[in-house]
Amino acid sequence: MDVTPILDGLNDAQRQAVTAAAEPMLVLAGAGSGKTRVLVHRIAWLIEVERVSPLGILAVTFTNKASAEMRARIETLLNMPVGNLWVGTFHGLAHRLLRRHYQEAQLPQGFQIIDSDDQLRIIKRMIKGLELDETAWVPREVQYFINAQKDEGRRAANMDDRGDYSRAQMIKLYQSYQDICERSGLVDFAELLLRAHELWLKNPDILGHYQRRFQHVLVDEFQDTNTIQYAWLRVLTGKTGIPFAVGDDDQSIYGWRGARGENMQRLQTDFPGISLIKLEQNYRSTANILNAANAVIDNNAGRLGKKLWTDDNEGDPIRIYNAYNERDEAEFITARIQDWVAQGNARADIAILYRSNAQSRVFEEAFFQNSVPYRVYGGLRFFERAEIKDAMGYLRLIQNRDDDASFERIINLPTRGIGAATITIIRDCARANATPMWHAALSSAGGQLSARAANAVQTFLALIEKIDEDTQGLDLHEQVNRTINQSGLIAHYKKEKGERGEARIENLDELVTAAEGFEPDDAELELPPLMAFLAHAALEAGDDQADKWEDCVQMMTLHSAKGLEFPLVFMAGVEEGLFPHKRSINDPSGLEEERRLCYVGITRAMQQLYISHAEQRRMWGSETYAQASRFINEIPAELVEDIRPKIAVSPPAFNSSNRQAVRRPNAATRSDAPIKLGQRVSHAKFGEGVVMNYEGAGPHARVQVNFEYEGMKWLVMSYAKLELL
Questions:
Q1: Cβ atoms < 10 Å from Cβ of 472
Q2: Which of 35, 150, 278, 361 is catalytic?
Q3: What is the mean predicted confidence (pLDDT) over 626-651?
Q4: d(Cα 280, Cα 13) in Å, to the nearest integer?
Q5: Options 211, 223, 251, 281, the catalytic residue
Q6: Which terminus of the chain, N or C, has less C-beta within 10 A?
Q7: pLDDT, position 102
Q8: What would the 3-class secondary structure string for 236-258 be?
């Protein structure tokens, strides 16, 4: 038998994995080592050489795209259709199973699958029907709780409230939600896996049939499996099944959404003597990039252990840029992108990777100003994000009470008991009288509102008036900050559990940063600061991202970058507290996941890698003086080129052992500056402080002051009215 087509082009380790005996196997596949190729060729080997029927193979992937690609490559390799092969995602295969055995799974034949948005709508209606306060029982928080329990294989009936009232109420809501789904014949995504797992546990005959049928179970991205997925696979393989798991414990970066990287070690425990093959030859990156990645990840404990290598040349060094601040960082990266394109390279070959979504804003601004096309991969541009639109809605209504679009957006956000029927009455009244909705609301919509609805509306109107009054005379960023907090948006999004809620708050804080650094252009100079800022935001939001087919820079979070590769990569904001993230620094397991995320980021680069950090960064609404990330220090010096030596810094006037003030050349030290570094000053509102920095000239000159009780503030000199002490 000629097996050349199956083995041709495989390296020694890949060939060993593909042709291994029919026994449990764990393939530790490093980044860019050809793991998909191994899976495809292993299936082809089983069918062509081992004479395993396609009906006896089950292959699991994590995305529909990966499933379709795998099936197509198998058919090309074997030159035959494999329509009966069970290749799919966990959810897709569980769905296929439940359709075949809906009666045993206690489901109606025509059960419907609901997505996340449908699920949330059901939960909202349920909370309203139970007459619970949405501010206390936040629908998204309830949704998160329900899905998390299902991912861990837990049913409400079997859960212990541990004497905790809130947990007891959550369990009741979980049960109420499940009762609604049962009555309506609805199945959410998390339910698919849990129900399929229960199907096998409750029906030994059905389980036995599939265990005899699927002797070979192949799984991609094994490090990303969660508890219920592992349990589903473990039950299927039983005592006689042959698992073939491919994964990389060094790329386990989804612990925050339930993935259990330790499942790779657990597999070795559950299958004593399981064979381990390491795929370490990388076909993507240069040697210097791989050596940097190896050095960083080697600081994690408890790894299965591997070392990436390549036949490629050493390549360029890892270039480290020590920026003054986030603007300097964005300007540097923009200039490098322009140099790359000027040399005839494509923008689509460039990726900017960052730890927090909020970091995209300063790059978007730099690209907008320099006409650099870009796309935010897997997300929205900064001013298009829902939480930013919510905050801008408050700011626009404060600026202009006749803005009906903003009025409708925020009148019940956060929820304040103003329903759709009330808004319809206000809208209809406004149209009938040819007035803005604000004026219709002032009249309680012509007396048509109930006493309760009218009171809720008047409370909202009073809130807007109060915010307007309280923000008069404040600097722009203080106006934005106070509006966001008094509106209740911060408190509202704090109730949204997980990374999503945290990201929303970070974005709102970044809006304050955007306001603080805002410089109006010529067309906006005559406008009041808030009006100019709103106009600027509208222009940026209205300037669409580049189309998918257009040659443009790719911007994304490090989590979104997994599985992708680019010739030129910029990792931005690699600083202590930002990356690794501040919430993980004191958590050993969290810190190790952050380091794995850094490893993923480094190995996205094929030819050139830039890592940047700023000594001073306005982030999440406050000024920070950051140190370069420990991850940068973990890269061997011989692999690194510093683009610019670190600038000299001097201790700030306030005595602090863990921060340093950045003295930017030609700014506060120049002779024409009206104020000097270290000068003590007094502000009518913030009290006494010390001048730390000075930027700009003329009416838009800005001074940074560290106040004794209010902390660090940036103030516009023309408005600050500082008194020199």
A1: 9
A2: 35
A3: 78
A4: 8
A5: 251
A6: N
A7: 93
A8: HHCCCCEEEEEECHHHCCCHHHC
Provide the token pair at 519: 């410089």
Is 221 one of the annotated active-site residues of the chain? Answer: yes
CATH of domain 4-101+194-281: 3.40.50.300
- Catalytic position from the list 15, 16, 19, 36: 36
Residue-wise pLDDT tens digits, 197-211: 999 999 999 999 999
Residue 303 or residue 653, greater confidence: 303
pLDDT at res. 667: 37
The candidate with the shortest Cα–Cα distance to 311, out of 292, 333, 284, is 284
Instruction: Report the C-alpha gap between 666 and 675 in whole angstroms.
Output: 13
Residue type, 152: E
Which entry of 42, 278, 604, 617 is annotated as an active-site residue? 604
CATH fold of 318-381+545-642: Rossmann fold (3.40.50)
Q: Is 251 a catalytic residue?
A: yes
pLDDT tens track for 150-182:
999 999 999 999 999 999 999 999 999 999 999
Query: Per the residue annotation, which of 48, 141, 188, 220 is the catalytic one?
Result: 220
The active-site residue out of 48, 151, 188, 221 is: 221
| CATH architecture of the domain formed by 113-184 | Orthogonal Bundle (1.10)
Write the pLDDT tens digit of every residue in 80-107: 887 788 998 898 899 989 999 999 999 9
**CATH architecture assignment, domain 385-516:** Orthogonal Bundle (1.10)
318-381+545-642: same fold as 4-101+194-281?
yes
In the numeric block, the tokens 């009232």 are attached to 165
